[in-house]
Amino acid sequence: MDSNEAYSLIDADGQPRSKFTCALSDDELKRCFESMLSVRSFDDICIKLQRGGRIGFSIPNTGVEATQVGAAAALRDGDHIFPSYRDFGMALHKGVAAVEMFHNMFGNGRDAAQGRQMPVHFSFVEPVHFFSISSPIGTHIPQAVGAAHAFTMRGESHAALASFGDGGTSSCGFHSGLNFAAVMKAPVVFLCQNNGWAISCPSSRQTGSESYAIKAKAYGMPGIKVDGNDVLAVHQVVSEALERARSGEGPTLVEAETYRMGGHSTSDDPSKYVPKEILDHWAALDPIKRLRGYLESRDLWAQEWEDELVARLSAEHAAAAKEAEAEAPPGLETIFSDVFESLPDHLRKQGEAVFDLARRKGDAAAGEGAFPL
């Protein structure tokens, strides 16, 4: 397929563009729909929490759900995800509980990163290898390649998925990662989520190439553009790329053409730079509406079923946010933990001094003043 032509299976109303065999079972299709609804519900609550001053930051995910969920549905157990910060759907579809994500959003004591990361910067080992998100764009791309090369060296059949936005293609990590992966034939899939903007920089100012997928040619790997709002097409393209990777044929660059319907983050006002007519155009291509239409054509959808899903997800996410908000902050000792197996003497002395000072100031976090590490 031409790397400048977006591959698609269903149109904006969910009707097949031509006859095809869906690789997803009925149950898998319905689960993809539920995951996409889950992303939108989780996203909505996060934005409300930030607007209410209860968390400091969030990243809107509305509009890009099909790319996230379609790619996640293609992964096998044991595969590793190196996500961008706009990938709620990958974690949720692979079984991460919403409450675990909310622990990060609040930075509490049950947060896997112990409050050391910004909100939205998730990291999980179970139920999926979901590597810690990094704010500087592109830095995780070579890391994904290194992990994939390690799979090969150990004789494992796993693959890595590196997800990044269109802005990430201008990073040094993009060049070094793709070059290394192609040379070493690492089992990795590069997923460029071309959502139209890198904060306020449009794609037209991001690259002079005809597409992002075409960049693959320079590195010696296949590149394919897919309709990122078509979850079935994304699933098929990423599945084929993963199969190619596992068979020893090396990496693939996938460009998923989608659209970010909100701001870059809750600190951003997209109305300052996104024309309304463009938003209206992409709203008509909504990925949830599209999959809904396909499910309905297969007698797999009913309004009552969707209403029940939305109500259940909203209640679950609200309860999860409430639980996470009530958790205590990370312990004072976490300033010093999780770096050294055995704490060096100079850090132990600093820790003892911190706890002693906190005790003298009446900070309950210091307990009796004894440094616990």
Task: Report what the structure shows.
- By secondary structure, the protein is α/β, with parallel strands linked by helices.
- The chain folds into two domains: 26-326, Thiamin diphosphate (ThDP)-binding fold, Pyr/PP domains (Rossmann fold); 332-366.
- Helix content is 42%, strand content 9%.
- The chain has twelve helices and eight strands.
- It has a six-stranded parallel β-sheet with strand order 2-1-3-4-8-7, sandwiched between helices. A two-stranded antiparallel ribbon has the order 5-6.
- Helix 1 (26-51) runs antiparallel to helix 10.
- It starts with 25 loop residues before the first helix and ends in a 13-residue tail after the last helix.
